[in-house]
Amino acid sequence: MTYDTVIIDSHVILPTGMIDKNIVIDDGKIIGLTNDIPACDHKINGNGLISIPGAIDTHVHYGVYSPINEAAKTESHAAAIGGVTTMMRMLRLENAFSNSLQPQLTTSSEYHYVDYAIHASIFTQKQIDQMSFCTDKGITSFKIYMNLGGEVGHVYMDMPPNSSNLVASKVNVTDELVEKIVKNAAKLGCPVLVHAEDYESCGCGIKKAKEKNQDGLSAWSSSRSPEFEAKAIKTVCKFGRDYDCVIYFVHIGSEQALLQIQEEKKLGTKIFVETCPHYLTLSYEKQNGYLAKVMPPIRTENDQKAVWNALSNNQIDTIGTDHVANQLKLKLDGDDVWGALAGFPGIGTSLPILLNDGVNHNRITLEQFVKFTSYNAARIFGMYPKKGTLEKNSDADVTMIDLKKEKKVTSELFGSFSDYIVYEGRNLKGWPVKTIVRGELVAEDFEVIGKLGHGKHVSRIITSK
Ligand SMILES: [Zn+2]
User: Which spans are transmembrane here (predicted)?
Assistant: First the structure.
């Protein structure tokens, strides 16, 4: 028997530790890890590189500022270069899923270089009623935006495929709606992803800061203080306990939010925690301009330390980038921090940031790195053992890493729709150099060589039923 591919001479990192074995791949699947080199059509020489289960980015926004037929192409290109083999899209639709979901799915299937999965955002009763329509299509997690409502209820939804118009919308995610979503998600056995910021408090905070003519990222942070995160965390965790629903907190980046989550865990809430590379690397104390405006805001150096500690102690489960594929002309379409657009790209720099600042600075081990970048996400979101592992029969998604590779970050490096990056010019040591999706080499040495359309939708299973 001749196999498709064997990856030789790499150090394979699993959540349990490192083993030096060859990875045998056939028909897009892992056949096994062996000491010998069986007959094969392609040999990939690892030359001492690190091989890990393909990285999963749990939190990606694309299809908002360019339609999915373009966004999938550019952002999965950036993903491939960044070593990400599965990108999880935060789908935001204005209308009923029965009308608007299928066109997104059909179009998506033609334009990805890497695999993708979808979280569905819920804004209305009509959408709550159609959550099972989503689970039938393998979309088994739901996003709640507690930050959106009242005076701060403005949001851009995803564009319909092939459109080029922004879809500006206003929504009202009240506590009542949050409770209903949590209740229904629990019934379906699905986790909810929660953006935990209390919109009423944030609305007041912003109003006050504007009245005082405050500006800059520090004003942005104090206008939506960590207290308002803690408040929302408390509210949704109560619902989580009442209905026995798994709560996954997206983009946690402040010490106070982390402390509140520890409290809620003690009370018995089932919680998973995601942080983003920017909360590990940026603070408003050191960051000028408006590029790093994001919700929730980047905080202080002290918060940054707290997030690193939580990561080192495994109080955080996953790394998602909260990547937003937007452009400078929209991002800085205003004279102050209030007029700037929130969110920035980050899917390509996630692994190198974690390797440079985390692994190479001995803050996290390579085993932890694997858990945070794939294994935990696959388990939480119903993709295990298809993804997040190199076990026999799992998808042959492999990211190969050169821990010594140094490179300066530029926005051009990734081929994203975005024309800027908050890490511009930063020298990072530790980069993904080969990205393999279901046995196909999709990117190598900062170049995408895969086929457009190779990326497939990962239909997920229900995890907690
Ligand atoms: Zn987000």
Answer: none
Domains of the chain: residue spans and CATH: 3-45 (no CATH), 54-384+405-426 (3.20.20.140)
Whose CA is closest to 372, among 429, 315, 322, 324?
Answer: 315
Q: How far is the CA of 145 from the centre of ligand 1 (A)?
A: 9
Q: How far is the CA of 194 from the centre of ligand 1 (A)?
A: 10
DSSP label at residue 342: P
Residue with the two structure tokens 């999915």: 68
Q: Three-class SS of residue 61?
A: strand
User: In angstroms, what is the span from residue 89 Cα to ligand 1's centroid?
Assistant: 9
H helix runs in 297-412, sequence order: 301-312, 328-331, 350-353, 366-370, 376-380
Q: Are 59 and 251 in contact (CB under 8 A)?
A: yes
Question: Rounded to an integer, what distance in angstroms lies between the CA atom of residue 320 and that of residue 250?
Answer: 8
The 10 Å Cβ neighbour count of residue 43 is 13
Taking alpha carbons only, the member of 51, 106, 57 closest to residue 381 is 57
Both tokens of 219, joined, read 């004003």
92-138 per-position pLDDT tens digit: 999 999 999 999 999 999 999 999 999 999 999 999 999 999 999 99
Q: What does the block give as tokens for 440? A: 């196909």
Cβ atoms of residues 420 and 411 within 8 Å? yes
- Ligand 1 midpoint to CA 91 (Å): 10
Q: Is 91:118 a contact under the CB 8 Å cutoff?
A: yes
pLDDT surpassing 70 at residue 464: no
For the cut 90, the answer to whether the pLDDT of residue 151 exceeds it is: yes
DSSP reduced 3-state for 401? strand
Q: Give me ligand 1 centre to Cα 158, in Å.
A: 13
d(CA 326, CA 341): 9
Mean pLDDT of 30-44: 97
Strands 271-275 and 247-249: parallel
How close is the Cα of 199 to the center of ligand 1, in Å?
15
- Beta sheet of 29-34, edge-to-edge order: 29-34, 22-26, 3-8, 40-45
CA distance 317 to 28: 27
Report CA(29)–ligand 1 centroid distance (Å): 31
- Spatial CA neighbour of 343 closest among 225, 422, 404: 422
CA distance 103 to 295: 29
What's the 61 CA to ligand 1 centre distance in angstroms? 6
Residues 6 or more apart whose CB falls under 8 angstroms from that of 242 comprise 182
